Amino acid sequence: MTQKIIKLTVRDIRFPTSLELHGSDAMHTDPDYSVAYVVIETDQGMRGYGLTFTVGRGTEIVVCAVEALSALVVGKSLEEIVSDFRGFYRLLSSDGQMRWIGPEKGVIQLATAAVLNSVWDLWARMEGKEPRKLISCIDFRYITDALTEQEALEILEKAEAGKQQRVDQMLKEGYPAYTTSCAWLGYSDQLLKQLCTDALSEGWTKFKVKVGADLEDDIRRCSLIRQMIGPNNTLMIDANQRWDVGEAITWVTKLAEYKPLWIEEPTCPDDILGHAAISKALAPLGIGVASGEQCHNRVMFKQFLQAEALQFIQIDSCRMGSVNENLAVLLMAHKFKVPVCPHAGGVGLCELVQHLILFDYISVSASLDDRMCEFVDHLHEHFISPVVIKNAHYMPPKDPGYSCEMLESSVQRYQYPQGEVWKQFKKQSLKD
Ligand SMILES: C[C@H](O)[C@@H](O)CC(=O)C(=O)O
Ligand SMILES: [Mg+2]
């Protein structure tokens, strides 16, 4: 049945997470987790839901960018889009009137992700996809020196073997996860201890700690958490781009005794050679470098891989141009033998990225070695099909679609600035 997209709406939804310092790190000290939330509707009454994660005031700019892209979507049929998804991706990412404010980066790329996520959601509610069809969604422009279309197809075809076994395994055991919920930078030691104790009793074995603002604090917090989790559990540290290259090496060397598996975003997320230098310096200490949550397109990831600048790739479901670009990165990571450990958390990122990482295991890498997906325990209650975590594993989603439909009651309560929650804050601040 032809489904013509007749409407696209986008709303600015913000959660006041800064009040309790959830999500805080060395660079984002008071984040209000937010989304630009997109709904597309077809003439047959079907809907697709998409979003991109942002923080606070920036959301209104992303909303404007989605509105600017909407004219490229409304009026098209789903069949028209998916029969040449590569072309449609290019239309959005290379539109002559808007390309200058990207290309394929920044606000326009976040907006592209929100729109395309809604298209993937709509499509996913309708049918299964074969390797050839998936490959036809990827824009190979600028990456053929690292991965050709033929190589990508061969990777997917090779992974057909054993696929059903991996599906069954995932349905039974789920995909391994780690938690970042215990140790946001703004949390007190007492809260950190409490959350860590709870997480251990729930079966968590892999923990990420925010670092980078103050070395003495980092030493104290890493030592505390290492003592609590013991020598056999896994610790990761995340500096959210706080340091220069030399500073990163010196700082992380001082934290090496706590045996972190990786240092995440040690420096500017665009500094490929800087990451390579940090990787080289930290390799003898057994510490890898992870990055990706602010890596804005497949071309950046290509160069990180070519330069051996990362030992862990952190794809993000909303930073790049949706599933289309993430497929390209999963396939390149496989070719370069670098494990994918997605960034999640935020608002809806866990809901979205679970699909990508399950796809990676089932249809691309067929490996769980050194792989795990981030989990953050905030804001899932606002989703119709929230993630299900069992024994520190993501259980495969059962509902059709891309899992980012929100409860309409939540959207209305948290819509900025007219939602009840924000109106209440406004009244309060007028009183103060
Ligand atoms: C501002 C966000 O909370 C950021 O700190 C998240 C992040 O770096 C992560 O989850 O990793
Ligand atoms: Mg991070």
Automatic annotation (TrEMBL):
Its cofactor is Mg(2+). It catalyses: L-fuconate = 2-dehydro-3-deoxy-L-fuconate + H2O. Transmembrane segments: none annotated. Its EC number is 4.2.1.68. Pfam families: MR_MLE_C, MR_MLE_N. GO terms for molecular function: L-fuconate dehydratase activity; magnesium ion binding. The keyword Metal-binding applies. Residues 189-285 form the Mandelate racemase/muconate lactonizing enzyme C-terminal domain. It comes from the Eukaryota. GO terms for biological process: amino acid catabolic process; carbohydrate catabolic process. Belongs to the mandelate racemase/muconate lactonizing enzyme family. ENOSF1 subfamily. This is Mitochondrial enolase superfamily member 1. It comes from Esox lucius (Northern pike). The gene is ENOSF1.
